[in-house]
Design a protein that fits this description.
single chain; four-stranded antiparallel beta sheet; 14 strands; rod-shaped
Amino acid sequence: MIKTNKTNIFFLILTLLTLTFAGCSKIPDCTELNTQYEKYQLNEDTTTCELYKSVDKNSCGNGIAEEDNDETFCNCAEDVPSSHPTLGCEGNKGEYLEYVCSAQETCELQQNNKVISQEKAVVFKNSDVTFRANFNINVPFILDIKDNNKISVNLEYFKGPASSSIKLRNLVVKEMVLKNSAAIIFGTQIYSEQLSTTGRKLQTKYFELAQTTRYETKESLQVELIVSYSRDIFDSKGELVKTEDKIETLKTSIGSWKIINPNFED
């Protein structure tokens, strides 16, 4: 009889333990169901997981940086921090460039305040004509960034022939050509402007620079100004002796300039 009671008590305890652990195992871990877009919590009355928070997918403002929705810091700063490793927009590239958001909401390189604009004054001349020009160029000159850098040039007809026995007619500034020291043409600007008096300022022109195959290079820039005119030569009595039709290429240098192409690494 005693042995039977002990057996019954053992099975009773085993049954209670089984029921107890079985009850505990039925309480789910609701955090396992959580996703970026749905959050669950335990309903203690029913011991089931219930959805308590959800956000719309592919929606700027939901607090989730969604590459599938083409979100970036520049077009959805609410969701994407500027420091995001792939979708953010911050930091520098080299000494002169920094990443910024453009008006088109894209992350682009922009030159910083270490880039300065310099003016280079030069003279084009021969025995008949003298032109003065002011070139404005950034130092360094940086290619392929949102600043869209260009070299500007303002040209002025400064002086005609020194001799009173020579008169010019039909003076036309035809074009200006920008080259490097290897004679590679960076650009040509057409003027086709006819001049009659000194002091005349011509249209402002703009040059872009050719692509380089290194991150940083130094170029010696040469400029050619092509002009045409008729040259009348008079004697001491003021009578016309000879007329010469001229096409002249006036040359000068605007010096060496540092050029940076951010598409190439150091």
